[in-house]
């Protein structure tokens, strides 16, 4: 089920689409990517919290079922960034996305949008536009899944409930408490129907834009959900919350904007701590690195973290690093070993292209050996599919 949605979502947004949205909004690509992740996670959690309402989930099922199978992301983004310009099917889809966000967030929609903006480093207007872009993308992807699998409203509710747990750490601070405290005022006065919905005087311009922000983030979430942020030492692993992004200046004057609990921050702490000696057991897992399925081709969204790691290596020229590739135990072990080696080499190649001398890096694939979680569960297999770093000199 998740694989079906994941495959669909990956085809909706690519690197050029993200760049286009960032250019239209006048925001950094990094902030737009974070905003997409945060807004999608927030919407999914909102949907999950209402999934037990059979009447409401039936309306959502109907709304999603009627969403188009395909859409032009560029046209949708342009229409979201310039309110009032959309016509025809695009206008109808944007309006339906607005209804979705209003139905999920109700009277707390403005507060939640502002929280997404703060967490992502976006202006509130940009966060609203991203949310209004994501909603129809989500409807399109999930709607396709509903039609292909003939899923019932109950199965759709289970999907939201199952998927929301993996993205809870991407929801802005305070928003989850709103859901869990039942403080969200839901708009149940009107059915959630497809079609053009006219604006009323009570709707603010930002509220109109909010619907679009939901699916683009879901793309990144689903891509990354199989790579829950973690750090492992030897064969032990623990899940961590990436935390808020913050600025960190390197010795050469370069400033990074990185997650407080992300791998870049932990790697820097390790390098800068004189009491930490290089050993063969301390590994750091990339937490925002993704590949095409069964391939060593890195996804575009991996570039941000690779650039950050390259910047760290440039700031500390004495540091040498080993990149390790790992898989779960699904399929042929020889194939898994080859794939893990190719993926590790792909990361090394990218770091070399970013200006790191090749003699400072080495790659090794370990296949399905050294698992950090139980391969008998999907969650465990997801944790075992990873790329890790180990310092060999500092």
Describe the structure.
- The protein has 394 residues and is of the alpha+beta class.
- It folds into 2 domains: 2-223, no CATH class; 226-393, 60s Ribosomal Protein L30, Chain: A (2-Layer Sandwich).
- The chain has helices spanning 2-10, 15-25, 29-50, 54-65, 73-81, 88-105, 109-120, 124-149, 153-164, 175-180, 205-209, 215-225, 263-272, 303-315, 333-353, 378-384, and strands at residues 230-233, 236-239, 245-249, 255-259, 284-285, 320-326, 361-365, 386-393.
- The chain has a 4-stranded mixed sheet with strand order 5-8-6-7.
- A hairpin with a 5-residue loop joins strand 3 (245-249) and strand 4 (255-259).
- Helix 4 (54-65) crosses helix 8 (124-149).
- The longest helix is centred in the middle third of the chain and has 26 residues, at 124-149.
- The N and C termini lie far apart (45 Å).
Helix-strand category: alpha+beta
> Rg to the nearest angstrom?
21 Å
- The low-confidence runs, each spanning 5 or more residues with pLDDT under 50, are 182-191, 193-214, 216-240
Distance between the termini: 45 Å
Please report which band the strand proportion falls in: under 5%, 5-15%, 15-25%, 25-35%, 35-45% or over 45%: 5-15%
* Number of discrete domains: 2
Global morphology: globular
The pLDDT mean sits at 78
Largest sheet: 4 strands, mixed
> Reading side by side through the largest sheet, how are the strands ordered?
5-8-6-7
Record field, number of beta strands: 8
How many helix segments? 16
- Give helix % range: 40-55%
Q: Element order, helices and strands?
A: HHHHHHHHHHHHEEEEHEHEHEHE
